[in-house]
Amino acid sequence: MPTNLDSLRRHAVVRSLFEPTTLERALDRIGFVQADPIRAPARAQDLTLRHRVEGYRAGDLERRYATLPIEEDFFVVYGFVPRAIQALMHPRSRRGVAVAASRSWSPQRRKRAQLILDFVRERGSVHPREVEEHFAHGKVTNYWGGSSNATTQLLDAMHYRGMLRVIGRESGTRTYAAHRHGPEPADAAERRRRIDALVNAVVNVYAPLPARSLNELVRRLRYAVPQWRGELGAALERVRQRLAHARVDGIDWYWPAAEDPDRNDPPEAVRLLTPFDPVVWDRRRLELLWGWVYRFEAYTPPAKRKLGYYALPLLWRDRVIGWGNLSVRNGRLEAQLGYIEAPPRARAFKRELAAELARMRAFLDLEA
Predict the structure, then answer these.
(1) What's the predicted TM-score (pTM) here?
(2) Residue 153 three-state SS
(3) Omega before residue 41 within 30° of 0, cis
(4) Residues contacting 123, CB < 8 A, separation 6+
(5) What is the dihedral of CA 104, 107, 109, 111, to 10 degrees?
(6) Angle, CA 311 vertex, CA 31 and CA 324 arms, to 5°
(7) Mind listing the pLDDT tens digit for each residue in 287-318?
(8) Band of the pLDDT at 94, cuts 50, 70, 90?
(9) Less Cβ crowding at N or C end of the chain, within 10 Å?
């Protein structure tokens, strides 16, 4: 039978929400996990991994980070990538922090960065507080228009350029050590191989993708490889030739050629997904597959919110049917659920919803 929206929807769920495995294997299979500092009721990276890692508990990624072959870095957004993927992106050219204006460093900024790098090498590892106490570079205006320590901002920029790596966190604050990446590609063929591998990694995280989303994700690799941003257009043309493709309801869809979207049977399960989960990350795809316009409202004024501060999309089998706002009060989980239409009346749904809330309590280490 020809590929249709039903098969694409099933494929989007089944290929991403695979059978839970070990943390290292899950990270390798996904290829990228987006990070976000908001806890509602846990950070996005933990909420993403709990569906894919057997026995996962909130904070496991941070607790085990130093023992895993992963790095914090910019990919299409900021998050966690296997070292093999990070190696494809570096060394980066001398540019500013990815989310700020792209610009060359002044001689003074280069000198400050070198002094900090020497300081970090001497110490072995540092907390930003130590660097600020030693150098006291003062305050600067950050990307959001607020005030930040100039030293902290420079550490971020040095991390982005690959001079530093994140070795852990203390109460959520990144700690750093010096880092040295491998050489640049030896020739144009090796450079294209690296770019194509990064594009494949993007597709692996978010497929199946409508054409417009594929275009935008490949362009977002300018954050991963600003030194090759001019070559991403050609990489997009190459990946279109590599991927499987179908035109459904007037829209072109793409996914890895080895996969068959018509051979998927979604599990009978309820899942509450973080807004940054790969299944729902692409809001355009979410609307096409499930006919629902979902908006992340954490930064929306409270009076204008329709779903809630951190509404988690509610998935039943292969259907997004509503959302949940979860919080912890007095050591107990509180869940407020909303539905796009009426909630399913089937006993199976009620049973699986109770099981999902039980999994959430275990994930948060809360009382039943």
Answers:
(1) 0.93
(2) helix
(3) yes
(4) 130
(5) 140
(6) 105
(7) 999 999 999 999 999 999 999 999 999 999 99
(8) low
(9) N
The 3-state secondary structure of 273-284, one letter per residue: CCCCCCCCCCHH
CB 131 within 8 A of CB 116: yes
Mind listing the pLDDT tens digit for each residue in 234-256? 999 999 999 999 999 999 999 99
DSSP H or E run through 297: none
- Phi/psi at 210 (nearest 5 deg)? -65, 155
Q: Check residue 142 and give its pLDDT.
A: 43
Q: Amino acid identity, residue 105? A: W
Give domain limits for the chain.
270-364
Quote the percentage of the chain above a pLDDT of 70: 93
How high is the pLDDT of residue 136? 77
* Band of residue 321 on the pLDDT scale cut at 50, 70, 90: very high
Torsional sign, CA 22, 28, 30, 36: positive
Residue where the block lists tokens 């790098």: 117
Locate all alpha helices (DSSP H) within 162-267, ordered by sequence: 188-206, 211-220, 232-242
- With tokens 């922090």, the residue in question is 97
**One-character DSSP codes across 156-172:** HHHHHHTSEEEEEEETT
pLDDT for the residue 1: 64
Chain centroid, CA 214 distance in Å: 16
User: Rg for the chain (alpha carbons), in Å?
Assistant: 22
Closest CA to 16 of 288, 328, 264: 264
Q: How far apart are CA 221 and CA 202, in angstroms?
A: 9
Burial 16-46 (b: 16+ CB within 10 A, else e): bbeeeeebeebbbebbbbbbbeeebbbbbbb
